Structures are given as structure tokens and as C-alpha cells.
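# step 3/5: fold
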Amino acid sequence: MKRYILALTGASGIPYATSLFQALLEIPDSEVHVLLSDAALQVMHLETDCRPEFFAEQGGFVYREQDLSAPMASGSWLHHGLVVCPCSMATLAAVSNGFGNNLIHRAADVTLKEKRPLILVPRETPLNQIHLKNMLEAARAGATILPACPGFYHQPRTIQDVLNHIVGRILDHLDIEHNLFPRWGI
């Protein structure tokens, strides 16, 4: 069984998260555990028609940020990677400074200490020096910083094509095969 954790925080970019969730569900013999911050619920309401129930209805396991007794709060709970998508600058700051005051921050901290893949997908522009410093510190601690900056060499025609490029790059860093976009030079 492969377990993946997807954390949604209060940055713009919920469509990236829902597309990633659906791609992770398609992996045979896998579980997807979804962590929702309160701010993510607000952004979800503003950006999409998606509601929190969607994740459970599709077969995901859903946790709120206050649930510090959830399994991923412990290093003994095995998983194959945590993706924070979208990753707010507040979450980035908490992760880069080792704060564990909610489930998302704690799960990220545990993921780093256990040397499992942690992928942070910031969706903010422009970036100030504090954001850049926090990205550098998180990267030094072992996180992959994968900004939601889609490429256009694959000539996307739809918004889903743009989403697929970032989702595909995330899957690449989780070592999951996919065909969400054509690769460069192929």
C-alpha cells in the first residue's frame, strides 16, 4: 500500500490540489490523506465549486488542521510523501522554522525528520526576501520547493493542461510515472 498526504493551505491554487488529488487516487493500491487548513476552506469556497466533502466522497481520508492526533503527526506512521499544495507563505514560514502548532506543520516536520519526500508548492507572487529566505531554509532542511510556475513548451490549450504540467512535475518528484504532459525533447 502506498500512502500519500496532500495538505491544502490558504494560498490561491486549489485547482492544482484537486487535480493532484485525482491523479494520486489513480495510483493502484494507494491511499490519499488530505489535510485541510481553515484558510484553505475559505480559498476553496472563493476559487472553486469544490467542497471539503469531495475528498472523502472520492475515497480520500480527510483531516482538519486541529487534529493533532491524526496518524501523520507521528513518525512511526509510514507514508510515501507529503505535498503541501498550495503552500501559503504562513505555512512555508512554519515549516522552515520548525513550528508544529497544527497538523499540517507537524506532518511536514515529521516528514522532514523521517527523511521522506516533502514537496512545497508555493503559489505567491511577487516574493519578498522573507519568502525567499524561508524557501531556502526549507530546501536546506530537505524539502523540495516546487512553485506553481507552469511551463508552456508543451503548448497547453486548456486550464487543465496548465494544471497537469504542475501536477506532473509533483508526481515526478514523488517518483510516480504519468503521462500528464509531453516531456521536453520527446
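# step 4/5: annotate
The radius of gyration is 15 Å.
# step 5/5: archive (pending)
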